[in-house]
Design a protein that fits this description.
By secondary structure, this protein is an alpha+beta fold. The chain has a single domain, classed as Intergrase catalytic core (hpI Integrase, Chain A), CATH 1.10.443.10. 33% of the residues lie in helices and 21% in strands. Strands 1-2-3 form a three-stranded antiparallel sheet. A hairpin with a 2-residue loop joins strand 4 and strand 5. Helix 1 runs antiparallel to helix 3. The longest helix is centred in the first third of the chain and has 15 residues. It starts with 11 loop residues before the first helix and ends in a 17-residue tail after the last helix. About 4% of the residues have low confidence.
């Protein structure tokens, strides 16, 4: 019988999932909004980190706290997507390739286990 080993906290998939879970917990973002975010929707301006969320054609800018900013920075650096501002921020990982986050992956976002990505279990704010 094979036992599954937990992914290291620095794997690309874990970095991505940790940023997604923290976005769900720290902002008012929904899984659908996160799935369509572009790289340019996360920015640092004057020492502050911000995310841009779109809902029904309405743009909302939200400040980002320290842990979320760190997780997004680590994921973007590891995925090497910082130079692609108009591409999707969160991509589906398969066979060491990243592609568009699919519908099945979106459904899994809301079922993600917080402990799997090294985030302290807490309730969503907002």
């Amino acid at each position: 019988m094979k036992y599954l080993r937990p992914k290291p906290l620095d794997s690309l998939g874990t970095l991505r999932n940790r940023a997604i879970v923290e976005l769900l917990l720290s902002t008012t973002a929904t899984a659908s909004q996160i799935a369509v975010m572009q790289v340019q929707d996360y920015q640092r301006v004057g020492g502050r980190a911000l995310v841009r969320l779109m809902a029904e054609g309405v743009e909302r800018i939200e400040p980002v706290d320290g842990p979320l900013a760190t997780y997004l920075d680590e994921y973007i650096a590891a995925a090497r997507i910082g130079h692609e501002p108009t591409t999707l921020l969160f991509r589906y990982l398969r066979a060491d390739k990243i592609s568009r986050l699919g519908m099945k992956a979106r459904a899994r976002l809301s079922k993600a286990r917080v402990s799997d990505v090294g985030i302290q279990n807490r309730r969503r704010t907002g």
